């Protein structure tokens, strides 16, 4: 295993997704700052961090465990996106775009 997690396609897509989540939550109501905004951003950061940390681990078992955690964080964000869409905080078109990113990253984490 290399320590160049930055070169992993899944890491690159996860970083793009993180930036998209930060941008998407910019216009949420201020009262959601410590609710959905913080939870979504934290889960997106965990996704990226777990991929990077996993690449730095020694054994394949540790790597798989951290990828599993990353997958959990990814689906946490997806659930929060569904709630945000239902509450009218994000437009259906943006929700669809972000949901496609979730599907793509999930496929990469499974590979």
Number of domains: 1
Overall radius of gyration: 14 Å
The amount of beta strand, in percent, is under 5%
CATH class: Mainly Alpha
Give the termini distance in whole angstroms: 15 Å
The CATH architecture can be given as Up-down Bundle
Are there runs of 5+ residues with pLDDT below 50, and where?
A: none
Q: Could you describe the 3D structure shown?
A:
- The two termini are 15 Å apart.
- The chain has a single domain (5-110), classed as 23S rRNA-intervening sequence (de novo design (two linked rop proteins)), CATH 1.20.1440.
- It is 78% helix and 0% strand.
- With 111 residues, the chain is mostly helical.
- The longest helix has 27 residues, at 60-86.
Could you outline the blueprint of secondary structure elements for this entry?
Layout: H1 9-25, H2 33-56, H3 60-86, H4 92-110
């Amino acid at each position: 295993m290399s320590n160049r997690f930055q070169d992993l396609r899944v890491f690159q897509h996860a970083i793009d997704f993180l930036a998209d989540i930060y941008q998407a939550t910019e216009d949420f109501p201020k009262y959601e700052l410590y609710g959905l905004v913080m939870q979504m951003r934290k889960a997106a950061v965990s996704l990226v961090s777990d991929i990077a940390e996993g690449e730095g681990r020694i054994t394949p078992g540790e790597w798989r465990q951290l990828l599993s955690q990353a997958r959990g964080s990814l689906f946490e964000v997806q659930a929060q996106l569904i709630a945000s869409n239902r509450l009218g905080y994000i437009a259906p078109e943006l929700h669809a775009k972000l949901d496609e990113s979730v599907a793509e990253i999930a496929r990469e984490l499974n590979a």
